[in-house]
Amino acid sequence: MKIITHEINTGGIDEKYKENLFNILELAGQSKTIEFESASGELANLLNNWNGSDSLEFALAELFKDTSKIRLLISEGGTEKFKSYCLSKAPHAEWGCCLSGFIGVEYAPEPNRLVTQLHETLHLLGVDECYHENTLEPKAECLENKCLMRHGVVSTMACPYALSQIQS
Ligand SMILES: [Zn+2]
Ligand SMILES: [Zn+2]
To answer: If I label 162, which of 15, 28, 136, 145 is the partner at 20 to 30 A Cα–Cα?
Structure first.
C-alpha cells in the first residue's frame, strides 16, 4: 500500500507519524508492505484548489483510475475547507474523518494531531472504530483502554482487535 500525504493550511504530518505507524504495522505483521509519498503535481493542485463543496471523492476518483493500493492522508490543521466538508458528513468527527475508505483528513488541535493521523490511517487500512458511533462508548471487542481507535483517546497504541483488521 502507498500512503500519499498532503499538508495544507496550518497542517503538518507529525514527525513521529511514520515511525509510529510502522510500529503498529509491525505488530500486525504488515510493516514491509507500506510506502509513503508526498502529494505533488496534479494531485497537489487538485487538493489546494478544491473549492470545499464539490465532491472530493468524485474528483479524486477521476484522477486515480485504480485506488486499490493507494490511500491519501491530508493534514489541514485548522478550521478550513476540509474540516467543514467532513463535519457536514460526520458531525461527531471532531479531529478528523475518513471519506469512502480512501481519503483520511486530520484537522485536530496540536496535542491530538499525531493520534488523529494514526487513527485515520488505520481506517484507510481497513480498521473499524473501536467505539459505538451512537454512544461513543468502547466496543466490547476492544480490551485496551488506551487504544487509539476508541473515541477521544490520545495514544499511539492499537488494540489486538484493531491490529487484526489491518489490510495493507
Ligand atoms: Zn474513526
Ligand atoms: Zn481498540
So the answer is: 15
